[in-house]
Amino acid sequence: MMKTRLSSTAYSLIFFCFFATAKGQVKPVDPGQTIHHKTPKVFVLKGATIVPEPGKVIESGEIVIRDGLIESIGKSAKIPADAFEVNLSGKTIYSGFIESYLERSDKKPPVMGRRSQQNQEEKTTTTATSHWNPKVKPDFSVLEQYELPEKEGKTLRSLGFTSAHLVPGSGIFRGQSALIHLGNWSPGSVIKENGPVQAIGFEYGTWSDPTYPNSLLGAVALTRQTFYDAKWYKEAWETYGRFPETNDQPEEDRGLAALSAHLENKGAILFMTDEELGSLRAGKIGKEFDLNVWLKGNGYEYRRLNDIKALDSFVILPINFPKAPDVSTWETALQITSEELRHWDMAPDNANKLAKAKIPFVLTTSELEDKKTFRNNLLKMIERGFSKDEALASVTTIPAKRLGLSEVLGTLKKGKIANLVVIDGDYFDKNSRVESVWIEGIKYPVITEPKADARGTWTMQWRYDGEVRIDSLKITGERTKPQGKLTNHKLTVPLKSVTLSSNNMFNFAMQGDTLGMDGIIQFSGSIKEDYAEGQGRTPTGGTLSWFARLVAPYEKEKEEKTETQEKASKLAVRYPEGAFGFEKMPSQPELILVKNATIWTMGSQGIMENSDLLIKDSKIWKVGKNLSISPKAKNSVIIDAQGKHVTPGIIDCHSHTAGFSINEGAQSVTAEVRIQDVINSDDINIYRQLAGGLTTANVLHGSANPIGGQNAVIKLRWGSAPDQLLFKGAPQGIKFALGENVKRERSWGRYPETRMGVEQVIRDAFTAAAEYKTKQASRGGGKGGKLIPVRRDLELDALVEILDDKRLVHSHSYRQDEILMLARVSQDFNFRIGTFQHVLEGYKVAEAIAEVGAGASTFSDWWAYKYEVIDAIPYNGPLMEKVGVVVSYNSDSSELARRLNTEAAKAAKYGPMSKEDAFRFVTINPAIQLGIDNRIGSLETGKDADFVIWNGDPMSMYSACEQTWIEGKKYFDLTRDREMRAKRKEERNALIQKVLSSGENKMEKGSGKGRRMRRPGEAESYSCVEGELK
Question: Would you give the DSSP letter of residue 560?
């Protein structure tokens, strides 16, 4: 912890010695820059209201400043003889505000990338010991070649900020932060070079960028791998240090060395986030590596308060409220989603909700398009109920504590650095102004609008050449941009160059022709309350004098609206946010009885007419006739399903729904990336697919690589957080891909570019994995031994799991030759193929597929959509089924997944086969393929209560899903959906009226950076049929 500075001289000497050591040379002393060459400066600030810390006030107090430090503070202080007195009567003094997130940005092109942080590259120096990936640079110092931009410093000072936490702004591992003062930039501006955090942003390049990663999937995987590498790097060097004779020297990596040292010291890791699920993603990584997690907030935290609170993290919170949606016409309003309208209404309450949830946070100007709107937004929050003391603490005491500055900044106290804010009133009064800030005892005047207001009607008397005139001077316009005219009963003369400066100097000019003067007459003077006076010059250089009195104050134009009091939003948070979220998550009755239905069990009981289904505690208890529950049973539900059909929940074995990212295409092998890291639980397609009876989906990586990423089997628990969608206990899987998608020629020349190359990539990968496994076993991990431990490789870990039969392969495929190729590779390396996906020529080699025990997850009747599927036929699925292959029909489309029941009907058409056998293609068969048939896929005793109620035959295109249940909870109800739509329409209309009456017109007065609202499911549009990205 930093110790209180006793003197500015001591501080400078320590700082000087530090830099001399760090840089290896001593910079010549600049007499104008170092305090020990200056005459000591002593000030006494008298008569002000002093707020030394939130909740404490000293009326008419005094502060003595000596050499940049507070020497004394209180109701009265002994004034030193050498002090310069500053009368601040009527002013208020606060401790200087601390900007907790000031992002460094240099004038270079922004980093490209879908959903990248859109930051700018810092100037970095690459050496032989730099990390192999240019986006990983924990060794980067944010102060390297840095100077505080004058305009940025001036803007922050105008808001009351006197110091800042400077954070690097590009890369994934971005480097070390620093702490600085916001005065005129010099070496003395640095409070601490090694700040408290290492910054991380999930940044990535464009699809055509050959640099890994080019997806959010890859950015997360690289982050995880780097943390594992840092741990290994430390162990490797420690082992080498003890046993150099038995080990080769590890490679030097200054990035890993810096990160390892930071982690060893329990330093904070600051994650950038751009929405609430991004916060949960960061927290998950923090939990995996036991990190001290800080979050750069995003303004959406209120949507997942409980989940974010559970992270036990510290949040640096922007108050970047969205611009008012453009609903100026009913046509433009059609383009605005309910989610956008609701966020506009709820965003200003975000900080107050975090405060009530006791989530620690500070406020920042970051993410504001115009930082000057920070104060207006803060006042809006306070009007809505945010405490003034909490607001003040969020820019003073809390950041000081978190940043390790409590002993020198954050409060006004003897011995602390003299960083102050001087206001001409209460900072939280919109009519008050920041007059100046003091940084290390040096005053920085703040340019603000003038105290005086020239607007109004004045009676003006002016004299020249012995003549006296009395005219009326009418000043209108804006306070800082006045305009006006001089009038009397005979004439009207427009004024030119009307200005009112910050020191109340008033200037204007007018054409003199109508007054008998050929040229421009110039006036200048000053205003004090309702009186103004000054002098002027005639066109010929003559002198004139003038004075004026205000006779009528300025009145706003009638069309200008009066301001309304801000009130907290009355909207309840939904899960997820938007039109169809739950305000209360579905409950789970203890008992559920569905009576008198036609039940498609998909098990040994077949299709049962006029039968009942009994559910107990989320599991199927019994299927039969004349079942009942006691009328006394509490928390029970009875559903009369007379004339309706009940089926197991539909399962999609090939989905790309609910993913923020689908493809990592920079490399041919990306087995390290995981779909579970990028689950978008807010994707509206989840709700739409529930409405089609879908309950489980196998979310696959895309088909950009011969060996792609790890899949995630999810249950469509709408409204839940991402990890709560994961199907616990489902066998792990991974996506492979063959054919055109992976071998196509890329602009940067990625290998492979032939089908032969695809096979070789796969064989090489498994050979490497086998060697990795052997090396791990031979060294026993290296723990406690004399050998350097084997570096953990997330890519090879996944491949070893395939070899160990712990991970199933799901392979994109079309042609018979590539299907046979992968079957032979699986036999050579003795691994299991869970499914061939698409497999449109599977009917040609069905026996070979059955021989290796693989399933086939195919399309019902897709063909001729690209050349490599020219031999596809609609009989493919039934033909493979007849030779013993377990066949399913999948969607590979968020749209088609809504009607897989009618896709199954096509199997009955082309089989021919019975309806019951055809419906197996979307229920029990995909469950078998995914290894979860012991849990779902059929309605049998002991299985999960995932079921669908249809209003008719589920194979009919005229039938509709009425209810969808998952584990005994109802996630979709057609009747409730209709009621909800009517209520949402009313709410939407009310919000549009609120926008129209708010005075925020056509998105002109918002303060955020104009980011487009994240609409779930729009992060990436993908289908294996399309190849890569649409």
Answer: S
Q: Strand 314-318 vs strand 292-296: parallel, antiparallel, or unpaired? A: parallel
Q: Is the CA virtual torsion 171, 176, 179, 184 positive or negative?
A: negative
Return d(Cα 89, Cα 425) in angstroms, integer.
Answer: 10
Query: Is the preceding omega at residue 878 within 30 degrees of 0, hence cis?
Result: no
Say how far apart CA 283 and CA 280 lie, in whole Å.
Answer: 5
Can you give the pLDDT at residue 649? 98
Tokens at 914, concatenated: 């019975």
Distance of CA 349 to the CA centre of its chain: 18
What separation in angstroms does the CA of 521 have from each of 515, 532, 543, 667? 10, 18, 10, 74
Euclidean distance between CA atoms 326 and 359, whole angstroms: 33
**In the beta sheet, which residues pair with residue 58?**
50
| 755/741 Cα distance (integer angstroms) | 10
Q: Are strands 855-858 and 947-950 parallel, antiparallel or unpaired?
A: unpaired
- In tens, the pLDDT along 814-833 reads 999 999 999 999 999 999 99
Look at 391 and 1013; give whichever has higher pLDDT.
Answer: 391
Closest alpha carbon to 655 in 638, 671, 675: 675
Query: Could you tell me the two tokens for 277?
Result: 């699920």
905-933 as b/e: b if 16+ CB within 10 A: bbbbebbebebebbbbbbbbbbbbbbbbb
Question: Which pLDDT band, with edges at 50, 70 and 90, does 143 fall under?
Answer: very high
How many CA atoms, within 13 angstroms, populate the side-chain half-sphere of residue 218?
31
**Nearest in space to 811 (alpha carbons), one of 929, 667, 689, 937:** 929
Q: CB–CB of 88/46 below 8 Å? A: yes
CA torsion through residues 894, 898, 901, 905, sign: negative
> Do residues 819 and 849 make contact, with C-beta atoms less than 8 angstroms apart?
yes
Residue 126: the pLDDT is 81
Instruction: Give the integer Cα–Cα distance in Å for 320 and 364.
Output: 9
Euclidean distance between CA atoms 174 and 857, whole angstroms: 42
d(CA 281, CA 202): 10
Q: Name residue, tokens 């433009």.
A: 332
First-to-final CA distance of the chain: 53
Compute the mean pLDDT over every residue in the chain, rounded to the nearest whole number: 90
Q: Provide the pLDDT for residue 114.
A: 40
State how far the Cα of 577 lies from the Cα of 184, in Å rounded to an integer.
45
685 contact partners, CB below 8 Å, separation of at least 6: 657, 658, 894, 897, 1016, 1017
Query: Which two structure tokens, joined as six digits, stand for 929?
Result: 């393929």
Residue with token string 């430090």: 69
Distance separating alpha carbons of residues 29 and 40, to the nearest angstrom: 18
| Other Cβ atoms closer than 10 A to 733 | 24
Q: Three-state SS for 823?
A: helix
Tell me the backbone φ, ψ of residue 909, rounded to 5 degrees: -65, -50
CB-based contacts of 368-373 (< 8 A; 24+ apart in sequence): 368/318, 368/319, 368/320, 368/1007, 368/1008, 368/1009, 369/1006, 369/1007, 369/1008, 369/1009, 369/1010, 370/1007, 371/155, 371/156, 371/159, 372/155, 372/158, 372/159, 373/1007
- The mean pLDDT of 382-402, rounded to a whole number, is 97
pLDDT exceeds 90 at position 863: no
DSSP conformation class of 141: B
At residue 271 the predicted structure's pLDDT band, cuts being 50, 70 and 90, is very high
Positive or negative, the CA dihedral 296, 300, 305, 307 is: negative
How many CB atoms lie under 10 A from the CB of residue 125? 10
Query: What is the C-alpha separation between 315 and 394, in angstroms, rounded?
Result: 11
**pLDDT 10s digits, 394-450:** 999 999 999 999 999 999 999 999 999 999 999 999 989 999 999 999 999 996 667
Beta-strand pair 69-74/161-167: unpaired
Amino acid at 513: D
592 SS3 class: strand
Contact between 217 and 664 under an 8 Å Cβ cutoff? The reply is yes
The backbone torsions φ and ψ at residue 560, rounded to the nearest 5 degrees and listed phi first, read -75, 130
pLDDT for the residue 260: 98
Q: How far apart are CA 321 and CA 164, in angstroms?
A: 22
Instruction: Kindly state the percentage of the chain with pLDDT values over 90.
Output: 79
